[in-house]
Specification:
240 residues; 17% strand; 7 helices; binds 2-amino-2-deoxy-6-O-phosphono-alpha-D-glucopyranose; 32% helix; globular
Length: 240
Amino acid sequence: MNFRQVDARADVANVVFRRIEHLLATKKTPVFALPAGSTPLPLYERLVDATLHSKLPLGRARFFALDEWWSESVPATATFRRFLLEYLLIPAGIPEDRLASLPTTGDAGATATAYEEAISRAGGIDLAILGIGGNGHVAFNEPGTPLDSLTGLRELTEKTRRANAYLFTGESTVPTHGITVGIGTIMAAQTIVVMALGQGKASIVKQLRDSPVTKDLPASALKRHPAVEVIVDRLAGELL
Ligand code: GLP
């Protein structure tokens, strides 16, 4: 697992942007797995700008959302699908059907199988773009998730629900479960980048570097992948 520290948030975005640009230059229809959350926002801004002003052919790509809330009562505005549409596809002028995502309710088992099949049919993920939770979760794979897990339901920790309360009307309304690609699904990607921004991620970034592979720190599983890079800004890397 390679750690790369750059200066600012925009520099982290730029490193990942270059990889996306390269994949678009070398593949007709590259497949990206995308996170929601605050971490990818500078990247999405950069991608929108380059699509609108520098003819980046991002509309040729296919996108799979990494995860979604699982609850009967998620407001449509709080879904990760909505987030990715709002911050990336719509402003970039990319048709919504280029984004595959997970539903918030239904038959979880059938949904999970169908998602894995859709990723396979698309030719697999070329680049999985990840954030990292304060407890080391990736997508919604919380500590304790088996390292070979595929897409499925996960119970969310209090810490994760608290961190996401800003998307809802308070912590009590944050869903207790999420549906997510598994660690095994992410490990099957050709390449993986983990982005971390800000001082709040400094401790987990250091733990990740120092940790053996363990299901107590889900992101540590990625150490077994041959092409994974963790890209951090100055603050997220200050304990390295
Ligand atoms: C959330 C999401 C993850 C995200 C992580 C970090 O719970 N399910 O996909 O990467 O936590 O979020 P943020 O980027 O807002 O710190």
